[in-house]
Each structure stands twice: as structure tokens, then as C-alpha cells.
């Protein structure tokens, strides 16, 4: 009874190859939920792509990537002596340093490191002057905000730190913007770290589908679900694979909508006004309403009586947010 990600492997891989070709030095980022595909799968794809290096978010992700990929692995989260002991002398792992005490702790060791420079992002990194200490540096790392001119911010940060040569690992710069930064800082060797635009850049090459687990035709007024809400109209109650455990219907926090926007929602959706929420499942051509908030592994969804109900075992399209979705199955066809 799975929630499945169907991937058109040829189309998806053609897109991956295209992004790689257009962006020399690209470092695939593999982290979190593996952008919906899973960390192990993406590591195996990176092996197929024959890239020398990938990046993971946190140290715990190294081992799964390591089993499926043969090259170097950068850990993006900066290492600090208060976070873990400095025992990561894995020759394939490159750690990021962003604090003087981290540089001091690793001075004179053979650990491979990147030195992160602070950008307008203000997440991590050194402000000039840069730390002195003999560490085995493989270059500098920059994390750029998505808002604003990333090229200018990268150039400004490098100049302020006096960096004009060697490898510089940057986030989110692709294509023309990457080429523009190359022109502006010709001495450095740019390594763009890319996750979303690589793995999720061709939305048409994959789609999520939910299996229909059960279907019931019910009269108006029937109480349903944990919450025992009554059916407002006669129709079908569908039990669909995909719940909170899969990240279904979880959204990123949004700015609070205005009173006016909320009033509009109340005025338009009758079911919305009845306290229901539009589900991400499409059945018989339309997105349908949740009967109640999703459960751990399934969702209860309402279907009007004049619609054609699916059968148990059918698959229906579901909109998912790929960076929060966990699928039961990823099928490459
Ligand atoms: C996640 C991350 C990236 C890749 O981000 P995408 O938006 O998925 O391309 C690059 N650099 C750092 C430091 C990150 O944390």
C-alpha cells in the first residue's frame, strides 16, 4: 500500500547530465530526505555521473553516501570542538571549519578541511582576517543567500578575505551566473554545490502517486474518521496511501495571511468554510478535500457522489513537496 515516486529514468538522467555538462566542477548535494529520492539512491546516481566529489549536510549522512559513492564527501555543517571530538580522519571526508577554535584544534593534523567565509547569509563562516593555523585546506566555502545578487556577494566576500586563487566552493550559482563569477574572479577554481536544481530541476521526469487502499460510499450525515465529522454531502470516503509519516500535506511555514485573504477563502470554498482543507490528491480530474487531517500513513479524502470513484489498488496523482516527502517506493522505469 505504498506511496510511490515514479521516475522516468532516461529523462531524469538526461537532465542530470545536462546540468553537469553546463556547470563544470559541479558538486552534487545529497542530504536530508535525499530530495525525495533518498540519500542512497542519489549517492548511486552521483557514482553513475562520475563526479569526483559530493556534499552532505551533516556527519551522520556520510556513511550511507560512502557505501554508494567512491569519491570524496564534503560535510557542509561546520565542525566545532563543542559538537564532536576531532576524530574524522577518513581520507575521503572533507570537513568545513568556521571558527578559530576549530582551526586551532585541527592545526597540524592531516584532516582535510574547507574554510568557510561569512557571506550576507550570516549562517556560518569567518569574517576577515582569516584564521592562521596550519590546516590541510582544500579551499574556501561560501554559502550565498537566494535573494539578491549572489555573484556580487561572492565576489565581495572573496575580495574582502583576500582570496584570489585556489578552489572556492559556492552554493546555488549555475549557468550564466557561475560563468559571470568565473570572469570576475578568474584566479579561483569554482566548485558549485547544487542540490535542488540538479535532482529536482526537471519536474516532468518524476511524479508521485498514491495507492487507493479503500473506498466507501456513504450517505450524507455519516460520521467518519478519528474526529467523527459528518459527511456534509453523500459521496465516497477514500483511504489513500500517504500520511504525515510521508510528509504529505506538510507545508513550509508561510507568512501569516492577511484578514482579507482569509475572508476570501471563507467566501469561496464551502467545504473550506466548513473547516475542511483541500488535499494534495487528484481524483477523477480534480483535487479533493480531506475528510480530516492526514494520519501517520494514510489520508481520508472525500469524493463527491457524481464523481467516478477509483478502485482499491488504483494509483492517483498526489502533489508532494519533494524536500519533505518520504516515499515507500522509488521506481525508476
Ligand atoms: C543545501 C545546501 C546547498 C544546496 O542547496 P540546494 O538549494 O538544494 O541546491 C548548498 N550549500 C549549502 C551550504 C547547503 O546547506
UniProtKB/TrEMBL annotation:
**Which residue windows are coiled coil?**
none
Q: Which organism's genome codes for this protein?
A: Motilibacter rhizosphaerae
Which segments constitute the Alanine racemase N-terminal domain? Answer: 14-128
Domain of life of the native organism: Bacteria
Q: How is this protein named in the record? A: Alanine racemase
Q: What is the lineage of its organism?
A: Bacteria, Bacillati, Actinomycetota, Actinomycetes, Motilibacterales
Task: Give one GO molecular function term.
Answer: catalytic activity
